[in-house]
Description:
Layout: E1 9-13, H1 18-28, E2 32-37, H2 57-60, E3 66-70, H3 76-87, E4 91-94, H4 100-103, H5 108-114, E5 119-124, H6 138-144, H7 168-188, E6 193-197, H8 198-205, H9 207-215, E7 250-254, E8 263-267, H10 273-279, H11 294-297, H12 301-312, H13 317-326, E9 331-333, H14 337-341, H15 344-348, E10 352-357, E11 361-366, H16 389-396, H17 403-409
Helix pairs in contact: 1-7, 6-8
Amino acid sequence: MTLALDGVRVLDMTHVQSGPSATQLLAWLGADVVKVEAPGGDVTRRQLRDVPGADSLYFTMLNCNKRSITLNVKSERGRQILSALIRGADVLVENFAPGAVERMGFSWERIRELNPRIVYASIKGFGPGPYTDFKAYEVVAQAMGGSMATTGFQDGPPLATGAQIGDSGTGVHAVAGILAALFQRERSGRGQRVDVAMQHAVLNLCRVKLRDQQRLANGPLAEYPGDGLTDGLTDEVPRSGNASGGGQPGWAVRCAPGGANDYVYVIVQPQGWEPLAALIGRPELAEDPEWATPEARLPKLAKMFQLIEEWTALLPKWRVLEELNRHNIPCGPILSPKEIIEDTSLAANDMIVEVAHPERGSFTTVGNPLKLSDSPTHITTPPLLGQHNEDIYVHELGLSPAELPLLKEQGVI
């Protein structure tokens, strides 16, 4: 079966996470992704190693379905080879520090000169301006994109989220830009540059907090928990703890036996209050004017969830989940990474996947969340360093087989 991006050649000049997460999605959609690595390899091949001598999970979980070549673009011959690779590519993706690609001799103008149809995607930490040269890391992007200031509890410090919204979140944004540019190329015949900044991607994911910042000008944010949020004492969006942040109040309530992840997240919709009140043993609250309406409950959210927790604390989370779903009350158990890996439904949906590896034996990874009916994804093992040098340099680029060992001796590959 032809996959969605069959015939699209991607030069993957990325490292660590933001870039590789983007190019892996492109590979899962069927693109031929050629990972161009320095002779020493992507630094994440060695970071956080758990199996001596084998590529780390950090690398393997971000580079499935790709091919790998090594190339020293600081050498003259290396730059010549990269020029040839660019001429034959549809997409080039890089996430080097600002100015690094230009110092290699490959400005956007030069890349476009080599291949007017190429889509050049550049992932950076920040856009043009005072932050341009800041070093960007996952949590730095969270800090400067609005996430950390609004994550955590009101009386505590700002917190990072465990979701990699700065790195992998930016990668998803980059994929959207790349696909749009490829689509436009079908009409215009021209490639274009796609710029994505980590700070900008995090900000896009935090848009509801900018919504709430503007709402503050017209009154308090009554749906947020804690003191000082309903009496006009704050002019900034507070940290919201586990509040849902939407129109329907929600909270994580503790379940038995009280372990670190023995919680269920519960949303209280207007129509759910009557069955919920009955479940927790307080059916009279469905008729009590102090509790019966969303407006009446809003000033008492902490007390409301305390009453719910008095019931859930006596039951295991899966029993709570069963009871709540039986009454069509929105909820979800807090699942740990261990529980997610063991979740049979996620495995059945190809979201938890076992992949064979020549050095590790096998490893578990996340599957493709983009499900296309005519473009099914099969996850394949990530490449070993330089595994496809001969295939690409000799059989596809047309270099002489005799040149390959010379290039290795000279440190070009």
